[in-house]
Amino acid sequence: MDILFAGALALKARVLSREAMQTRAMWLAFLHLKLSVFDSTGPGRESFQGLVFGCTIDSKEVSFAGDSNQISGVMGLGFGPKKFVNQLDSQGQSNGRFSYCLRRERTMGATNSFIRFGADIEQGPDPSVTELKRNNNIVLYYINLIGISVNGYMLNIPEQEFEIKKI
Q: Where is the Xylanase inhibitor N-terminal domain (predicted)?
């Protein structure tokens, strides 16, 4: 099954978790197998054999930022056994690293935001790096939040309030 990632779907699936069954939330997602072809910032396209990954394309009764049914395009990058970054690393492409620039909500429609892997990660003169933290009980990762500011003013919240608590 050779497909172009941009728009084509390999396998649609309804994703239901235990919580989703209780709240009637549902995601329509796809699981992609075999040959993956991606648009590239360089000339041509990039292709990879044997990648396995999924991405949401629709949601039902899922609340996000106050609105229901507004989530699509979510791709899992967790620490599971088929971690996307590790799959790319096995083909010499990621060095175990990925970079994603979080854009301000106001500018989302005006600019593109790319996820980059390995040597493709752009390094400016003063890069800001955030290590991903793990909670050993689950396959998710976290960033180490140290504070919150609003309009340039730091809220008086002790850093330890943001630390990962045991589940």
A: 38-118
Could you tell me the two tokens for 151?
A: 């309009």
Enter the tokens of residue 62: 């899922």
23: amino acid identity, one letter? T
Per residue in 46-91, pLDDT (tens digit) is 666 666 666 665 555 555 555 554 555 556 566 666 677 777 777 7
- What residue segments make up the domains of the chain, in order of their start? 3-124, 130-167
Environment class of residue 167 by beta-carbon count within 10 Å: exposed (0-12), middle (13-18) or buried (19+)?
exposed
* Cα–Cα distance measured from residue 31 to residue 1, given in angstroms and rounded to the nearest whole number: 12
User: Distance (Å, rounded) from C-alpha 116 to C-alpha 66?
Assistant: 29
